Amino acid sequence: MSGRPVKHSLTLRGHRTSVSLEDDFWAAFREIAEARGQGINALATEIDATRGDVGLASALRVFILREIRAQSSAPKA
């Protein structure tokens, strides 16, 4: 596992931006987006719209952490 953030470009409401996240966060973010039937740009746009004054990378990490916690506490079928 590499602890170094990796920069990727995203398009949010038609504007390109770069976000640096560690590889594990990028992988989890892609998995969450896929499970929701969304692309990563669409999901990032939703998160961006609600993040307030928090940086986008931090907002994405917190979102990913909350999603993983929610999945792990969900009742097993």
Description of the structure:
The protein has 77 residues and is of the alpha+beta class. It has helices at residues 23-35, 40-50, 56-73; strands at 6-12, 15-21. 55% of the residues lie in helices and 18% in strands. Strands 1-2 form a two-stranded antiparallel ribbon. It is globular and about 40 Å long. It starts with 5 loop residues before the first strand and ends with a helix. The mean pLDDT is 94.
Structural key phrases:
Ribbon-helix-helix fold; 2 strands; alpha+beta; two-stranded antiparallel ribbon; 77 residues
Overview in brief:
The chain has helices at 23-35, 40-50, 56-73; strands spanning 6-12, 15-21.
Tell me the fraction of residues in β-strands, as a range. 15-25%
In the CATH classification, which architecture applies?
Orthogonal Bundle
The CATH topology comes to Ribbon-helix-helix fold
Shape: globular
User: Considering DSSP H and I runs of 4 or more, what fraction of the residues is helical?
Assistant: 40-55%
Number of helix segments? 3
Please give the domain count: 1
- Give the neighbour order of strands across the main sheet: 1-2
Our Rg estimate from Cα atoms comes to: 13 Å
Topology order in helix (H) and strand (E) letters: EEHHH
**So, the CATH homologous superfamily?**
protein bp1543
How many E-type strands? Answer: 2
**Any idea of the CATH class?**
Mainly Alpha
**How widely separated are the two ends?**
31 Å
Mean pLDDT: 94
Give a short account of the largest sheet.
2 strands, antiparallel
Structural class by secondary-structure content = alpha+beta
Spans of at least 5 consecutive residues whose pLDDT stays below 50 are: none
